[in-house]
Amino acid sequence: MVEYERVLVPIVGKQSDEAAIELACNLARKDTEICLVHVIELTRGSSLDTEVDTEIGRSEDMLSRGKVFASNKGYDVQASLLQARDVASAIIDEATDRESYLIVMSSQYKRKFGVFSLGSVIPTVLKNSQCPVMLIQT
Question: In this structure, is residue 1 part of a structural domain?
Answer without folding.
Answer: no
